[in-house]
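Re: that backbone. Tokens:
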């Protein structure tokens, strides 16, 4: 498996510096938040895409994909009752799929809780139906681009719809596209699921529905900085032969992003080396 760093952790460091730092402390890849590049990242010109790929290549690190897709431009929503808003949102989603492909990434993680909120006065069922329609619309485009589009379950404290892996998997099954899958965010899963994160791997990874992993503690800090224990989780990933990306995505950085990123990769590499030693 590859261990990637979500690049917003290192803001406002220039992207070339982010790549160099991540490589130096032991990451294999960078998972990019489009908003860190501009307010309209879906409109990034070819020269800018080339520069991003070059910076990663020169640092010797992979660009693994995109996450936090709909923070910018402002006003996007896959649940809005306004059809024009949804059309604009779908257009951004389609262009981000192309961006992921152009940057050499293989996976997009659709979290963006604020952009899938249930509109005031609306029902959860109606909002979910509109979200499902938007996801179905972009799935074929992801397949044509050769990337995987992952629906991220998020805790009820963040959003009212798609809170569990079972809910996300139901949408994946209903749409039925080989490019549409779900994923585990360990912080969200720890706050929304009844099973442990290791048990979730045992239950869902063999089904083929999981396309990605993000790791962070339930306290929103990096793995190893809270009460969650990740040895059983990584043991489960290895037991099932997971060969995808595990992305480090904390939201609280102490004392800063660089320290958080370095601490996380040291913790994860220690676990993996321990597991290999007992293999």
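Recovered sequence:
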């Amino acid at each position: 498996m590859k261990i990637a760093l979500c690049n917003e952790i290192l803001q406002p460091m220039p992207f070339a510096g982010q790549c160099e730092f991540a490589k130096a402390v032991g990451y294999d890849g960078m998972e990019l938040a489009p908003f860190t590049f501009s307010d309209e990242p879906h409109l990034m010109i070819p020269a800018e895409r080339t520069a991003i790929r070059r910076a990663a290549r020169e640092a010797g690190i992979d660009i693994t994909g995109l996450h936090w897709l709909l923070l910018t431009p402002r006003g996007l929503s896959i649940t809005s009752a306004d059809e024009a808003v949804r059309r604009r949102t779908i257009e951004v989603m389609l262009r981000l799929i192309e961006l992921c492909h152009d940057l050499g990434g293989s996976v997009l993680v659709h979290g963006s809780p604020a952009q899938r909120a249930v509109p005031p006065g609306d029902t959860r069922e109606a909002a979910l139906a509109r979200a499902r329609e938007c996801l179905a619309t972009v799935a074929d485009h992801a397949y044509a681009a050769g990337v995987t589009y992952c629906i991220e379950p998020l805790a009820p404290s963040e959003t009212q719809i798609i809170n569990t892996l079972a809910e996300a998997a139901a949408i994946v099954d209903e749409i039925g596209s080989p490019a549409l899958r779900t994923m585990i965010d360990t912080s969200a899963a720890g706050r929304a699921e009844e099973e442990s994160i290791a048990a979730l791997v045992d239950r869902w990874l063999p089904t083929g529905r999981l396309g990605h992993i993000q790791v962070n503690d339930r306290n929103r800090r990096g793995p190893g900085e809270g009460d969650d224990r990740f040895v059983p989780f990584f043991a489960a990933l290895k037991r099932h032969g997971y060969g995808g990306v595990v992305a480090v995505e904390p939201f609280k950085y102490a004392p800063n992003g660089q320290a958080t990123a370095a601490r996380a990769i040291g913790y994860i590499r220690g676990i993996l080396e321990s597991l290999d030693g007992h293999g």
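Strands lie at 2-6, 29-32, 62-67, 107-110, 148-151, 180-185, 210-215, 245-248. The CA atoms of residues 77 and 276 lie 44 Å apart.
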